[in-house]
Specification:
mainly alpha; 7 helices
Length: about 160
């Protein structure tokens, strides 16, 4: 599998797995596809937020686990490991960031900013995971760890503010 990114085409969305892995088309963005993909997660979060904590966690974890297969399959189809257009990992990562987040638009925005910060910055061990773990697990795992970092910061802020 190539590490060189190829340009994504609208025809790549014809494959249902790519359609979902590419964030329903958000991954085709020329600029900041990871950020655009994370934006796709916001309305999904707003749909899931009213659920019980247990239901929210189960759905978020299930979407993350499905993402391992989904991202692996899409990367193989596209012929590029962790193509920037594959944004399902960002979608799942944002949902994980928002577990038990306080209600309110400011928390939605803060969770978004924190998740993007850790996903882009990639402090240790996120960068090591990104470089050393291959396949769908690698595509998802660095975002899961970024989500855990973002969740922790969000939780600490909520403790002091709330």
């Amino acid at each position: 599998m190539s590490k060189i990114n190829r340009r994504l085409l609208l025809s790549d969305l014809k494959d249902p797995v790519n359609f979902v892995a590419l964030g329903f088309g958000a991954g085709l963005s020329k600029y900041a596809p990871g950020t655009v993909g994370t934006l796709v997660a916001v309305p999904l979060y707003l749909l899931l937020e009213p659920l019980s904590l247990l239901a929210y966690v189960v759905i978020s974890v299930a979407l993350t686990l499905v993402g391992i297969w989904l991202c692996d399959r899409s990367a193989r189809t596209l012929g590029v490991h962790d193509h920037p257009g594959i944004v399902w990992d960002e979608i799942a990562g944002y949902l994980l960031t928002m577990i038990a987040a306080p209600s309110g638009w400011q928390w939605v925005v803060l969770g978004f900013i924190l998740f993007r910060l850790f996903d882009i910055w990639k402090p240790w061990p996120i960068k090591a995971i990104d470089r050393k773990v291959d396949g769908g697990l690698g595509i998802m795992l660095d975002d899961v760890v970024a989500a855990l970092f973002a969740w922790l910061v969000l939780y600490v802020i909520a403790l002091f503010v709330g």
